[in-house]
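Record type: monomer structure entry
Structure origin: computed from sequence
Chain ID: A
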Amino acid sequence: MIDALHPNGAAPFSVEAFSCQKAGNARTEYEDAWAIRGSDSPTRCRVAVADGATESSFSALWAALLVESFVRGRVHGPDFFGRLGAIRRLWRRKIRGRPLPWYAAEKARRGAYAAFVGASLNAVNRGWRAVAIGDCCLLHVTGNRELAKAFPLSHSEEFGSSPFLVGSMTKSDDDPLPHVRVSEGVLEPDDVLFFASDALSAWLLRRAEKGEPAWEAIGPEGIRTREDFEALVAQARDEGTRNDDMTLVRLMRRADREKGAS
């Protein structure tokens, strides 16, 4: 089944989320995170996706704290990454006292890391404003199923093995602010915003670059259930995409979604 359908609190928007863990892993080992939330205004909502780095400790917890902090807040752009003190303290409190072997404790002392993309949506002017660090992506696809914007990475070759990631510890040589990217756009009728973790984003861009775009496949007619999403992920892996956690959040203006379903 679908992981989440946004409640009525975000009436202007239809937002659906799909996710699956690495092949061979248990669901509890999923290290991405996503969050969706309406604001105190009935015309706005916020969406975020984060990808916890497997190489760091408690990265799933850190990814979850990042996305929840973003969607529950009001700050935009670089300001979000300048105000991480509270959730960094919360991350430390949540791992403190956990019984760990010495090597795991040493790893935890180095902190957790995650890539992040988040956006705020305004139904009045149909605008979106996004902020990102790392290689989770927002993909703005038009009603004609053409890619209008890929952010913060726009080509599949840009995805590497060591992007800058936002950390759970404050370090003098690890300032996230120089690495923040921001973008904005406008949702025209029948446009869709997709938010995806890195491996899925790279596959989607690679398909588009080959002239074989998968926008229909990840649209509302292509993915309706978790099983649909898992089948698409299996296809991506068959085509050479690395084995990673996969996350997709799909956002449409509600009027467009209902028209497409009629």
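Annotation 1: The chain is about 30% helix and 30% strand.
Annotation 2: The helical segments are 59-72, 78-81, 85-95, 102-109, 198-209, 215-218, 226-238, 254-261.
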